[in-house]
């Protein structure tokens, strides 16, 4: 083992007279890390290099520090054919490097590593510029290794392998030229193959210098020169060590060029682009901070007592079993946003209804039930508009006395259902993203539902967008959204049989004409249905939202009743006519709590698909119900505990 | 999406609402690595999930070195347990672990299955019956006869996947590059799109052989970089507006959703290497698209 080290050290001592002293300084200062590294280095190199037939006197411990440098470069001369020039070549290049480094070498090597590494690199380049660049990186690697050893230990091990792939012949040529040029170091090489003497500049040297001058020429366009650019590029390659560097060298070149320019425009670009991220983060931070209000203790008690907020995370867990979900942190933010909603509005019950995707933005929908007497605001507006309509129709009738009267009467506008009944049973709030403001959707009118059934439009994400369609939709996007929500709720909100039961009602007999029961309540005696049963038979699930009639309402409205004036005027003929429509128009839908097995098939396809969440672990699986009519509507049930029944609709339109 | 970054990709794509349940995720992670080993693919992509009435199909695709070469498609049905199968046995059980190779799609398959409407059943051997009027000639008489053609669901699956791939598989600009020798490689220095680029549809390409590239004018071609711009961009898709591009989480994630094939989501985190697309849907084209915009 010592054989290899000693001849190198031998040459060193012989050859590097002047260079030695500054280098020893370096060596002394850098002894500790280097010695640490020499251990892993050595075994690696002994593999690479063959034994070399030299011997020499053992060296002093002081120059022990030099072996790491030598050892690293040792594998640079692996091939037996011409070991001599190579072995001596590398140390000589090292010598030059050390000389250059000697002066500026400071105690903190690491910070100066890169700039220092560049100068020997450029030096190497200079020498080998007309020999091609392939060898330069090899030696430069070894140089680079030394100086960046504290950061990249692996490269030491990597370096020798690369260097060993070197073409020995090229090295010989380089060595020859190097010899000519190097007038600084006084070393004498015993094993030189060429006998070129130092002294007068040869044509080769002039050629090299002119080549270098050409490389250093500054470009008129960009102010860069090829020399610097190549050195930057090679530095980058050696720093980053990408795989298959030769394949991506063009992009690296581009990156280096761009790096020159980026610094000036940096601050401007970052500001513009990063702002929206920061704004959203601020909004969401507000969500998280809302809990820190004054009088925290009191509020906590109130919250626990009211319990209007559902456990969104729990439902989200079950939906995740079904493969439906928005991701945990998004769900949590929605949870917090719902809490914000309940804090700002007097809400009895609140539920996360789902998320509707739009073209530019999405909607997060919350289904809310206000406390008694809280939401009377909008009712008055509707009455006003209705009165205005009646006034207009009166004016028209006066004009028509002179002209032939048309017998056509515009169909009675079917009034919307009262709040808290039928399709307007719940109030819906939407926001575009968690942390945004919640906007209340207006109640839905039957005309809107009827038209919504006939059109199919994407949502854009902005509530004021007009809906351009045929038949024309009475309203803008907020109305369309509300109508769709109503339809989806009516079609897909289901629960296991028996979970809800009809409450006791006082006026049951009066409502027989319509045959509808409006309210239901949770069945405290619900025992749960086996999950297998829920999956196998659709009759175990029932709708618990009223079906919307073709008229657009849940409770059928007889349009004939209101036109009492006309009844009095007309003759019996008219009455007959009216009776017939009255008879025919009685629209009946399935009553509340009908099992979903009665749902109509769609194009030979069952309306619902049932699935167990996991076939591998059936004892903890939950039953999942997926609607085929409304893609994205899911219901799940655990079967054991009634509180865990849930549903959500995330429509993709 | 790449099978290697499956979990992260699923998390990023979760904004559309449809994802995978934990047990599916876990089983996919294991089975996709095995597929990669068995079939010796360079990269395995989890393509997505097609929802059927009885069962769902999970689709994966394997890529070889050349990224644009025809991809091999594998599917996995949900299956039913057969007797006493050991669930840990990869080969023997039909239940969630076994992948079957799908035949490559041909033109006639696409034509044949274009008549089929409605949802997938979920059973690959299910046969659709379709009556066609075919002209049969017997001697001098030419009459039309109703012929009942049976089409297997597997064929339909193949053609639907192929159509979706051709129409809406997306890749960001710069993620792949073309070498002069022909093969297309993953670009290892792809750092992600910048924010301004990420908001433009022109920075995303269809992940298939280019069709419209040759029709471009010389002026347009002059601006293109031949090593990067060798696929069709999404910008000129017909109908215009068939892509919905949204930024989520402020500007930290860009999500493209196709409106032509609802259920296809492409996500990319700008300035990072994360990107991918997944299709979770019923496998039906949205023919009403022009009316819905």
Automatic annotation (TrEMBL), chain A:
Source superkingdom: Eukaryota
Biased composition (Basic and acidic residues): 8-24, 118-127
InterPro entries, sorted: Radial_spoke
Swiss-Prot/TrEMBL GO biological process terms: axoneme assembly; cilium movement involved in cell motility
Bias-annotated ranges (Acidic residues): 372-402, 564-585
Keywords for this protein: Cell projection, Cilium, Cytoplasm, Cytoskeleton
Annotated protein name in UniProt: Radial spoke head protein 4 homolog A isoform X2
Organism: Mustela putorius furo
Phylogenetic placement of the source organism: Eukaryota, Metazoa, Chordata, Craniata, Vertebrata
Gene expressing this chain: RSPH4A
Automatic annotation (TrEMBL), chain B:
Keyword hit for Hydrolase: no
Keyword tags: Cell projection, Cilium, Cilium biogenesis/degradation, Cytoplasm, Cytoskeleton, Flagellum
Entry's localization field: Cell projection, Kinocilium; Cytoplasm, Cytoskeleton, Flagellum axoneme
GO BP annotations listed: axoneme assembly; cilium movement involved in cell motility; motile cilium assembly
InterPro entries: RSP9
Coiled-coil parts of chain: none
A GO CC term attached to the entry: kinocilium
Keyword Transmembrane helix assigned: no
PANTHER family: MITOCHONDRIAL RIBOSOMAL PROTEIN S18, RADIAL SPOKE HEAD PROTEIN 9 HOMOLOG
Similarity comment: family membership: Belongs to the flagellar radial spoke RSP9 family.
Name this protein carries in UniProt: Radial spoke head protein 9 homolog
Organism, scientific name: Mustela putorius furo
